[in-house]
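Session log. Operator J.P. requested a structure for one protein chain; no other inputs attached. Running the standard single-chain path with token output.
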Amino acid sequence: MRSIINKIKNMFKKSLVVEDIKQEKPAEKLLISPNLDKNVKYIKAVFDRCSDLVVREFKIPAREPIDAALFYIDGMVDKNLTAANILRSLQFNPSFINDKNINKSNAFNIVKDQLLSIGEVTTAGDMDTLVQKVLSGQAVLLIDGTDKAIISSVRQLESRSVDEPQTEPLVRGPRDGFVESIRTNITLVRRRIKSPRLKMELLKIGTISQTDVAVLYIDGIANDKLVNEVKERLGRIEIDGVLESGYLEEFIEDCPYTIFPQVSSSERPDRMCACLLEGRVGILVDNTPICLIVPATFPQFLQSPEDYYNRSPYATFTRTIRFITMHIALLLPSAYIAVLTFHQEMLPTPLLISIAGQREGVPFPAFLEAVMMELVFEFLREAGVRLPRPIGQAVSIVGALVIGQAAVSAGLVSSAMVMVVSLTAIASFTIPTISGSYAIRILRFPMMVLAASFGLFGIMVGLMAILIHVCTLRSFGVPYISPFAPFSFSDFKDNIIRMPWWTMTKRPSFMGVEDAKRQKLHHKQGPPEDKAELEGGESGA
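Structure written below.
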């Protein structure tokens, strides 16, 4: 009995100790010690059971040899650069041997300022910073008798080459896309906007992953309140790890309970640069090729970077097609169900007789018929994405043809329904952004339920509910369906229609940018009025 009581007392004491530890304030940062052996033991203890840590201890050949140690992660640094510009510079430099004034007290400054031929050299005074720099792929040098560390940027992280984006292909436009390296992605943006006004503020998010996150904006164009709001929302994120930009998207969006995306995502550097020039803010996350752009508006998801590379009539035509196909992808199955179920009188008699003949042996009502075919197509689409690319294309195309034909032959669905589902699928593919098409694909099913229950009246109720919902949404303070509501006539130059570049003299007004002027006001462009103007005025002279 006593042993049981003692065990309970010990458990109670342990729980109290755990609670006391949780309530303790975070300890102050541990400073680097002048004793090299102590620092080496601490770093080895921190990286215990980490076989990729390289510890290179050596002596600097001064009059009195000075102990030093170099730390780095194998596979994250350029070994040739480390050996040539750090180790060789310190071990085989005659200045140490010939100069009798070099000792432990001044060796740190001489090494940092004179001997290391590295482009980026910084210092650190605490162990937390030292450990983070090692984990970031940098080489850390400690010298005996000095309470600071020299951090050399010799990173060489393996990454795939810059290639054409797979999710946003274009016929006319740049062929480069973001990769998993944030440094490479920043370079791709900097190549397009060569201005010191392009600001890039680096944050670290994730208590364990310590993921680099860059906030990009153009100073003098982006609204300061917007930039501060983005940084504040990112700063409030407390999570153990960030592995993709989608982690951040759900934390910073205004309304998390809507299916409409409030943060735009892209794999194209040119798209991001165009948004930055409009006054938006970009977010790059290390280890992912997908960037985030805020604020986002619904018309933005129906626009493609190619609209700005083609001439105005072509861009306007393709945008009009996208707006039409968006409504087809949302409403065509529900309209088919409503007409066949409640409003047969709306169809011409020959067409009604033809559809009735096709449905003569179908055992299911139009609603179940449409739901089954839509679900089957979603299954095929998801299978085509998850399978290897050559196999996935064959499954998605051949599977749709075979299953559709087999369903019609078996009398489970009618030919008209197969055609309706096919047109709906093709229309959904015309939406240029993946995140923008998700909302349409999901809303298609509630609209079909309303059509089967109330006919065209149910469809109108659903459309009104969707419209009211999107009118209440905001993305970082910007109305979601701008410039439709609030209405702005000037912003319609770059909406459903795309006016020529020489007419778009101002940036979108709903962004609240500081510098609204995009270009000088020009008169209407066109061909020279006479031959003299064409020849540079020679005939006039």
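Operator note: Residues 11-27, 530-541 have pLDDT under 50 and may be disordered.
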